[in-house]
Amino acid sequence: MFRNLHEIAWHRSFGVLIERLDQAGFWQALVRRVGSGVNVNNWVALVFEQGTPSLLAESPAADGGSDALFQDYLKGFYRIDPFWRVNGEQPQSGLFQLADVAPDYFAATEYYQRYFKLNIVADEVQFNCLLPNNRLVLLSLGSEQKFSEAEIGWFSLIKPWVLALLRQRMAYEKIETPAITDNLQALRETLTARELEIVRLMLSGHSNKGMASHLNIALDTIKTHRRHIYSKLNIKTQAELLLIFLGKS
């Protein structure tokens, strides 16, 4: 038996979401339900196929249109986003919070300064649902303040319902395969595969020690690779490296 009217309303709201699975307003309705009583300032729904993201839906920008900064994410920032490990490297289902995936010096990176703090601001959680053939559908929620323990508890409580809805929604999504632009071509022509991986880790916010641990190589080897990278590319700053990484140099 239901214990109170609030519990009845809660179950009814998820029933309404099931009815809207094939409708255009599904994502907005899902975010309203998931974010009920939670400080959610922006959101996006994506599907990753073979490590490449496609946009399903997003919260509108301040002017009511699409977020121009988010286009940089789709063009390459996603490779250095903290959630890349659970989205692209090792896609997996679950609920993930920024604090669980962000490297040591994430807040000091050019990516954080140029994109993350402007788009997400303070905190982010992702509901990830892994589909057959390593496809991953996700719902990301951003907040201007750090999510509280109670809010994370709420997200954890509803995770099974949200993941089930994400999985079922994909039967109604018509996904256009994005035109893939290889923004890393300039780097591939100049750097070794190991150096390219270090570039990605460095731009993601990993310290030298963190990169050495991640790649299981000596700390001095990391330092040598970094010197070679900057020398080969004839650059002096991480800002210059980021522009090359995005193919904007």
UniProtKB/TrEMBL annotation:
<dbReference type="Pfam" id="PF00196">
    <property type="entry name" value="GerE"/>
</dbReference>
<dbReference type="InterPro" id="IPR000792">
    <property type="entry name" value="Tscrpt_reg_LuxR_C"/>
</dbReference>
<dbReference type="InterPro" id="IPR036388">
    <property type="entry name" value="WH-like_DNA-bd_sf"/>
</dbReference>
<keyword id="KW-0238">DNA-binding</keyword>
<keyword id="KW-0805">Transcription regulation</keyword>
<keyword id="KW-0804">Transcription</keyword>
<dbReference type="GO" id="GO:0003677">
    <property type="term" value="F:DNA binding"/>
</dbReference>
<dbReference type="GO" id="GO:0006355">
    <property type="term" value="P:regulation of DNA-templated transcription"/>
</dbReference>
<feature type="domain" description="HTH luxR-type">
    <location>
        <begin position="184"/>
        <end position="249"/>
    </location>
</feature>
<protein>
    <submittedName>
        <fullName>Helix-turn-helix transcriptional regulator</fullName>
    </submittedName>
</protein>
<dbReference type="InterPro" id="IPR016032">
    <property type="entry name" value="Sig_transdc_resp-reg_C-effctor"/>
</dbReference>
